[in-house]
Amino acid sequence: MPKRTSDGSLRPLPPDSRETERTRWSRCVLTCLDVGFGKVWRVREDLWKELLPNYCSDRQWHPGMTLRRSPVTSPYERVPMLHGTSSARGPVVVRGLTRHRGSDHETSFGRIVAPCNIPLAEWIRDAPDADLNGLTGRILDKKRIAVNWDKPRIDDGEEEQLMSWMKRRRLW
Question: 81 pairs with which residues across the strands?
Answer without folding.
Answer: 66, 116
